[in-house]
Design brief:
By secondary structure, the protein is of the alpha/beta class. About 40% of the residues lie in helices and about 15% in strands. Strands 4, 13, 14, 15, 16, 17, 18, 19, 20 and 21 form a ten-stranded mixed sheet that branches. An eight-stranded parallel beta barrel has the order 5-6-7-8-9-10-11-12, surrounded by six helices.
Amino acid sequence: MNEEIFQHVQQAYGVENWSAGYFEVNARGNISVHPAAGDARSADLKEIVDYLIARHKVQAPLVLRFPQILSAQLRKLSAAYQSAIAEYKYGGQHFPLFPMKVNPRREVVEEFLRESGRLNVGLECGSKAELYAAVAQEQPPGSLLLCNGFKDETFVRTALLAVQAGKRVVIVVEKLNELKMVIKLATELGVAPEVGLRAKLYSRGSGKWASSGGDSAKFGLTTSEILECIRMLREAKLENKLSLLHFHIGSQITDIKRVKNAMKEAARVYSKLRQIDCNIEFVDIGGGLGVDYDGSKTRFDSSVNYTVQEFANDVIYSFRWVCEEENVPVPHIVTESGRFMTAYHSVFVTCIRDEIETFADDQPEVTIDADDPLVITELKDLCDSINTKNYNEYYHDAIQLKDELQIQFNLGLVSLEDRAKGDVLFWEICHRALREAEEDAFSDEEFEQLKSSLAQKYLCNFSLFRSAPDSWAIRQLFPIMPIHRLNEKLTDYATLVDVTCDSDGKIDRFVDIKDVKHTLELHNWKPDQAYYLGIFLVGAYQEVMGSHHNLFGHPHEAHIVIEKDGRFHVTRIVQGSCINDMIQFAKYEPAQLVESYRKQVMAQVHAGVITEESAKDLVKQYESVASKSTYLD
């Protein structure tokens, strides 16, 4: 690959910064995926997509899922804690839990549990549905099944079913009434789970979810409530079941200093409870371990200023130091680092379907007539005379003339044709001014904004609300780039729009090492050639939180394993939603819809508008639409 092009591609997309060693640009100019960081095996994403289209007849949009990356991230997490435990001679163990809310898909959950025997992997549930699924999963003795979230009697009874099946179940108490219910049912059924108490810490995280910690947090018991829980357990002679202290200061913590402060506070709470004869065995530090989505390694909302090893070191060191000072045994550390465990394993692939024409695109050259208004003549003069020395001044003049044109139009002084001429001239001036500014290595903010305004708008075959909802809901940045043609020069700037009818269905914020870019560098798009874009790091939350806005359904999905010889193997294809699926999701009866349409066309037959044979054909066509994809064919 040409070195200059390679450097430009790296600068434009920063693959090495955010990929954690799982993705890279290969010699063919395509994106390759590795099953683990540093693993020599790799598969070409473009080859995978081409194979899926040719062999399995699936089209973009589609999700590529790499289960080996799930295992690799779990091993990386476990290795970080084992290293910290060894370095600081820590007397406890690490128990990683997978929080099902992050990605409850069966394939994801089962992949983590395959590693459970060696790494103490357990599950965390926050709802009755998650718990119901988790109870039936095979877990080795000693791994935990943790029950978080608000609970009713059905929730607790289901947890007790897991206890009776031999699982080590910990019900985390979120409020006093829950503990009353747990004690009542345990006494009634003669089955007692282990109990955890969620503490409401003063410390808070950082980033978008900082408000989920601190005094005003949704979850957690105050100090007085914790002491009341202990009194209730002792009164019920169940104090030996209190085994875990839990806290959570927020997801995607961006600043490691917040982690250190929280761990010190939590370690103090744990130590004080041990000193009043609460034999707590585990401390669950919750989630919070972040993912560096933009690769900047900063405190920015879509980044983190630490590594997984630094995070683990601070957790283990803080607990060891405080426990030594308080003269209590150290606890086992439980983590719920779901985002870290899952984000990297899924890539969403879409394709550009069309370009939304804007401004002066493909407009004929404007000719000036003798009776044209003065404002049009002046715009034409600016357009013809703009150059390197005057582009800044002429651009500002053009803005002023554009305003004058609009005022005159509102007053009825210029025609619609004149307004059209003025628009074409104005945007042509803008294009030329921007070209001159780029040659001049501009740094002026207004030209950056102009660059965004003039960027191509590409229509991509996907729903933002279904496949990357956090991009819309919380302005999360995800790495986005072409998965092929990366050995060719990048020539265009663009923003992306989806196929929904919602004006928010667009992506105009992109990853950059120093800032947030408002345009994405792309190759020249050719309507007759497939051009695929990948949205990376979407394995956490995006699938489960995606909505069916406009009744767009799930895209196709493929599970890919990379073999020892470097070849890839498609282990599973999951067909995406068809129109019929989404119609039933919206509570329509397909047969009733067909019958209603049949009545309408038969009315046309009776009115003599169409023949009965034509009516039958129309009904047949209508029925056949239901099996089509909700996305563009």
